[in-house]
């Protein structure tokens, strides 16, 4: 038994507090340490549960005495305290790993990828919920996994997971793992080595066996390259836009594809079909998300009629190609969640009108080459929204005639509106993190929407 062993939680936000509550239930000696200020709602949860904590700094002696440390996914490996714990040989795990150890019989559909995670997670959850399943949505969207286990365990967990959460797993094993795509992101956390980031994403399959299912994108170059040299134990199902059900040693004819504007989901002899025009969310990226969600739902035993119904009733997520308003013939679209270049590619690809693009923020080592052709084809002006915009100017000044700088959402909206004409679209799709000017991407999107409404 692990009775009264010392559990230290580093970070007291959603995942940390969830792990603390679960640790308390499982009779660990729990202590929470946060270098910053703990949000009032989380402080109250800890106090109500009688869990000891500190904020505004770390007491090294107490942390180094831990038998197990659960660290926030936001804490990088290069943090001094993590280096000391590693040197001492202390076990460190992520909150999803800690939750997995106590989840009981519940089944997990875990979804990762550089883009589309939140939409696909919410869509998969929506299908299972519509079908009457006992299901919760956890991870980076909804409750933390550990907190859900404490408050209301369910038969199914649909989980959005990031590479940071997958970095510190040991036994975490989803029944269904979904890898949507891989494009450069968060390279600052991976020593600017793309191969390290790719490996982190594939950690989702690390502990899977032949009894499990891995669902992934046949059209993604990085995924296909990795699979050539890294065999996957789980049964692998592909989704594709090319209807190329090419077999390898792990695949079979089940999977999902689009053909002649029809979306097909094939599983165990049943072919679920519907027109892509009947999907409630539009754009090629959402066809990929729908295929991934649909095949995940079929592996969970959900029938075609429920999947079709769910696809037509699903409401997209805030800050992801969210239509805001039309002002004097100019459409405004909030895609603040687009924090990398590949997200912007999908956003621009789905635009049918001339675009005034609001771009910029905290650059994570962006290479804009990927969107160069789409920008040349569709973008008439760029409004920079960030403290340091020189990379955007350098790359796009020979392609886009108008590039202006702003440092607030209100100014960005006013500048974009002045550059737009009737039947244009103003698209906030920044390709960058938001922390230079905003609390997070939600704050950036909310301020954008407020600025549009005040026009």
Automatic annotation (TrEMBL):
<feature type="domain" description="Mur ligase central">
    <location>
        <begin position="111"/>
        <end position="295"/>
    </location>
</feature>
<dbReference type="Pfam" id="PF02875">
    <property type="entry name" value="Mur_ligase_C"/>
</dbReference>
<dbReference type="InterPro" id="IPR036615">
    <property type="entry name" value="Mur_ligase_C_dom_sf"/>
</dbReference>
<dbReference type="InterPro" id="IPR005762">
    <property type="entry name" value="MurD"/>
</dbReference>
<dbReference type="GO" id="GO:0016874">
    <property type="term" value="F:ligase activity"/>
</dbReference>
<keyword id="KW-0131">Cell cycle</keyword>
<keyword id="KW-0547">Nucleotide-binding</keyword>
<keyword id="KW-0963">Cytoplasm</keyword>
<keyword id="KW-0133">Cell shape</keyword>
<feature type="binding site">
    <location>
        <begin position="113"/>
        <end position="119"/>
    </location>
    <ligand>
        <name>ATP</name>
    </ligand>
</feature>
<dbReference type="InterPro" id="IPR013221">
    <property type="entry name" value="Mur_ligase_cen"/>
</dbReference>
<comment type="function">
    <text>Cell wall formation. Catalyzes the addition of glutamate to the nucleotide precursor UDP-N-acetylmuramoyl-L-alanine (UMA).</text>
</comment>
<dbReference type="InterPro" id="IPR004101">
    <property type="entry name" value="Mur_ligase_C"/>
</dbReference>
<keyword id="KW-0961">Cell wall biogenesis/degradation</keyword>
<comment type="similarity">
    <text>Belongs to the MurCDEF family.</text>
</comment>
<dbReference type="Pfam" id="PF21377">
    <property type="entry name" value="MurD_N"/>
</dbReference>
<keyword id="KW-0436">Ligase</keyword>
<feature type="domain" description="Mur ligase C-terminal">
    <location>
        <begin position="319"/>
        <end position="432"/>
    </location>
</feature>
<comment type="pathway">
    <text>Cell wall biogenesis; peptidoglycan biosynthesis.</text>
</comment>
<dbReference type="InterPro" id="IPR036565">
    <property type="entry name" value="Mur-like_cat_sf"/>
</dbReference>
<keyword id="KW-0067">ATP-binding</keyword>
<dbReference type="Pfam" id="PF08245">
    <property type="entry name" value="Mur_ligase_M"/>
</dbReference>
<keyword id="KW-0573">Peptidoglycan synthesis</keyword>
<protein>
    <recommendedName>
        <fullName>UDP-N-acetylmuramoylalanine--D-glutamate ligase</fullName>
        <ecNumber>6.3.2.9</ecNumber>
    </recommendedName>
</protein>
<keyword id="KW-0132">Cell division</keyword>
């Amino acid at each position: 038994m692990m009775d009264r062993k010392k559990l230290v939680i580093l970070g007291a936000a959603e995942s940390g507090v969830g792990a603390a509550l679960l640790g308390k239930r499982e009779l660990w000696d729990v202590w929470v340490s946060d270098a910053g200020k703990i949000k009032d709602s989380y402080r109250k949860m800890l106090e109500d549960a009688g869990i000891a904590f500190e904020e505004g700094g770390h007491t090294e002696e107490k942390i180094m005495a831990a038998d197990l440390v659960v660290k926030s996914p936001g804490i990088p490996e290069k943090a001094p305290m993590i280096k000391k714990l590693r040197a001492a040989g202390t076990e460190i795990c992520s909150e999803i790993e800690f939750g997995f150890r106590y989840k009981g019989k519940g089944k997990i559909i875990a979804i990762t990828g550089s883009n589309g995670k939140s939409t696909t997670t919410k869509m998969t959850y929506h299908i299972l919920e519509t079908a009457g399943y006992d299901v919760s949505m956890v991870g980076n969207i909804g409750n933390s996994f550990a907190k859900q286990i404490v408050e209301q365990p369910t038969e199914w967990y649909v989980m959005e997971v990031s590479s940071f959460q997958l970095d510190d797993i040991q036994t975490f094993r989803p029944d269904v793992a979904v890898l949507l795509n891989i494009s450069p992101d968060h390279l600052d956390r991976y020593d600017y080595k793309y191969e390290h980031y790719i490996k982190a994403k594939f950690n989702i399959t690390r502990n899977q066996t032949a009894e499990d299912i891995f669902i992934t994108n046949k059209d993604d170059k990085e995924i296909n390259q990795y699979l050539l040299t890294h065999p996957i134990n789980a049964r692998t199902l592909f989704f594709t836009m090319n209807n190329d059900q090419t077999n390898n040693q792990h695949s079979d004819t089940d999977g999902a594809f689009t053909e002649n504007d029809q979306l097909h989901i094939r599983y165990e002899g049943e072919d679920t079909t519907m027109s892509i025009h009947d999907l409630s969310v539009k754009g090629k990226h959402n066809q990929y998300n729908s295929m991934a969600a649909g095949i995940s739902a079929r592996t969970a035993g959900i029938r075609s009629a429920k999947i079709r119904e769910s696809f037509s009733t699903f409401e997209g997520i805030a800050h992801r190609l969210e239509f805001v308003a039309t002002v004097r013939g100019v459409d405004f679209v909030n895609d603040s969640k687009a924090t990398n270049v590949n997200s912007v590619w999908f956003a621009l690809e789905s635009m049918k009108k001339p675009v005034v693009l609001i771009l910029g923020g905290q650059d994570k080592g962006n290479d804009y080459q990927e969107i160069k052709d789409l920008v040349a084809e569709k973008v008439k002006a760029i409004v920079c929204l960030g403290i340091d915009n020189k990379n955007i100017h350098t790359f796009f000044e020979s392609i886009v005639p108008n590039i202006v700088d702003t440092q607030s959402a209100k100014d960005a909206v006013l500048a974009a509106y002045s550059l737009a004409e009737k039947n244009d679209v103003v698209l906030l799709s920044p390709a960058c993190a938001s922390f230079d000017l905003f609390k997070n991407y939600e704050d950036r999107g909310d301020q954008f929407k407020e600025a549009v409404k005040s026009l």
